[in-house]
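Record format v2
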Amino acid sequence: MADYTLNIAHLYGDLMNTYGDYGNIIALKYYAKQIGVQVNVELVSLNDDFDGHAYDFVLFGGGQDYEETIVAHDLKNKAGQIKDYIENNGPLLAVCGGFQLLGHYMEMADGSKVDGIGVMDHYTTNMTADEVQTLKGQRLTGDITIKNDETGETYHGFENHQGRTFLGKGERALGQVTKGQGNNGMDQSEGVIYHNVYGSYFHGPIFTRNGNLAKRVLATALSRKYPDIDWQNKLADVSAESF
Amino acid sequence: MTIKSTLAKFSAKSSHWFLRDILHRGGTSLPGKLAVAIDPDILHKLSNDFDLVIVTGTNGKTLTTALITRVLEAGGYSVITNPSGSNMIQGITGTLLTTPIKPSPNGKKPVAVLEVDEANVERIAQAIPPKMFVLTNIFRDQLDRYGEIYTTYLKIVAGIRKTPDAVVLTNADSPIFARGNFNNHRIFYGFDNVAPVDYQDIKAPNNTDGILSPTDNSVLHYNFITYANLGKYFSVTDNFVRPQLDYRVTSVDQLNPKFSEFSIDNTPLRIEIGGLYNIYNALAAYAVGREFGVKPSDIKTAFESNAQIFGRQESIQVKDKDVTILLIKNPVGTNSVIDMMMTDPEPFSLITLLNANYADGIDTSWIWDAEFENLHNAKLTALATGGQRYQDITVRLKMADFNIEGTYPDLSKITEAITKMPTKKVYIAATYTAMLQLREQLRAQGYIKEEF
Ligand SMILES: [Zn+2]
C-alpha cells in the first residue's frame, strides 16, 4: 500500500474530454507511482457538488462547443466553491475550454458568447473578433514551444484552438511563445499561471510531453497536502519524459 | 438524356478508359471532375436509372456498403457501388457515370449503394433523391479536419431534410441519431442480446462523446453498452429511452479476431471478420436487405460466401510470423481494435506505428483517449513502437505501464521488428500514412505481392 494519496477531481470529465486531456491525469499517476503516492480520481460533473476540500488537484479539460455550453450553464452553480479552492491555492490544470470558462467569457466559432465564471481575469474572443490582428479567421493549429522565464523551463506541445484569450490582472503567462501562436497569436503569451492554477491551450497533453511541469505541479500538490515532506527532493531522481 | 449530359457521360467514360488503361488504377475522381465541369446537372439526370441508398457515418461505411451490395445482389438486384475512399461528390459522379447499369435479374429497379462522406451527403442527396439513408454512427474523428460530432450530424440532417420521402435507417444504439428535426420515416436497428434481468444502470466511460440526452442534455445512462456510446440508453431525468428496434441482434455467440457468430432476429449468421463493431455493419446490411425484400436465407448466404469483402484486416506472412495489419485513426476505432485483440485466444505481440501527416490527423492527442490500458487484459506478450511520432506512442504505452521492447522510427527496419517479436502472431496497428509506408516496405521486401 502506498503511504500517501493524491485525490484528483476531473471536472466534467465525461463532457470535457476532447483532446486527450485525461492524459494529464495518466501522467500524474505515472510520476506519483514512482514515489509511492496513490492517485484517486473522481468525476465531478453536471449537478454534482464540488467540494474543494476533498481534492488535492483538479483537471478541467476542453470539449466540443456543444458540450461546453451545457457545462458553462452548470458551472455557475460551482463557481463559489471553485473560487474558494483557487484562492486557497488549490492546484488546478485547465486546458482549452476549461481555461476559457474560468475567465469572464468566451466566444464560440459561430459568434455566440458564453459566460465563464470569472474566477480569473482573462477573457476569450473568437478568431474573427475586431481585436484579432494575427491569423484572423483561422484556427491556431500546430506545434508550439514556450519558455517560462521564472523557472527557465521549456514546454513543447501542439495547439489547436479558434478562441483567442487575453490575460488580465494578476495573471502571468505559463510561458512566452518561442514557436507557434499561444493565447492569441499577438502578445507571445501562452497559458496562464494564477496562484496554483495552470491554464494552457496545449494538447499533447501538456503533462505527458513535459515531465518537468508534471513533476513541478505534482510536488506543489503534495507539498500542500503533506507539508513536512520534501517532495521536490523525492521527485528529483524520477526521470521526466520530455519530447 | 440531353446531348450535353450524354456528352458529359461519354467524356467521363473516355477519361476513365484512359486512366484505367494507362495508369492501371480505378476509382479516381478525374472522370467525375470532367463530367461535372461539362454538366453540373449530370447526377440529377442519372437519378431515374436506379434507386439510391446512401451510407454515411464515421466508422464502418466501407464494410457496410460492401455488405449491403452483396446482400442486394443475393436478392436478385443489379447493384452499382463506389470503391472505398471514393466517397466525395467527384468520385461518386465518376463511379455513377462509368459503371454500366444492368437490369436487375429480379425485375426490380437496379440499386446504387454509395458510401458518402458526411460533408458530401447534402450535395449528393440534392442531386439524386435517395430512397434510403443508412446511418452507421458518429464518433469524434480527427478534429483538426472534420469538426465536432453535432456539427457533422447536422450536415447529414441537411441532406435528409431535403428529401422527405427518403427512409432513414438508423443505428438506434447511437443517441445522437435520436436528434434531428425531420419527419422522414425512420427504421431502427440495434442490439437486443441482453436479457432484461441482466440490465444494469451504468454510464459510459469518461472518454466517450455524444452521451447527452436530446431532450434536456442530461448525461444518459445505459442498461448495457456494446462499445463507445452505443447501447441501450435511457434518461434518468425524463422518459426518454432508446427507440423501439425494427431489426435486432438477438444473440452474440462467438467473437474472435477471425470471425463472429451471432443472430439477427433469431437467424444465426456468421461473418469472416472479428470485432463486435462489425456486427453493427452486418446488422445495417441485414436491415437494408429486408427492407428491399431479400430473404433472411439469402442474406445469410451473402454474408457467408463473400469472405474476401472483409479484407480490411489484412494478414501477411513475414518469415515465421503471422502478421495482421490494423488501421487506427481515432479513439473509438482504436478501442475497437483493442477489444478485438482481447478476443484473441493466442498470445500475440503488437507493433504500434504513429504518424501525424494530414491524412493521419496532425493532432496526436487522441492516443490518450484510447484505452491502451485494456491490453493488460489481453494475451499481449511484447510491444514495440514506431512511425514518425514514435515518441508520443512510446510514452503513451509506457504510462499505461507497458515495457517497450523496441522502437522503430525508421520503417525500413520493420521486418527486423516483426521477426524479433517473441510470438508467432504479430499485430501491427498503424495510422493511415504509417500503414502505407509499412505496406511499401513489405512490398519492397517481397512480403506483399499485389499492387493496391
Ligand atoms: Zn483545444
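The two ends of chain B are 36 Å apart (CA to CA).
Residues 187 and 291 of chain B are 9 Å apart (CA to CA).
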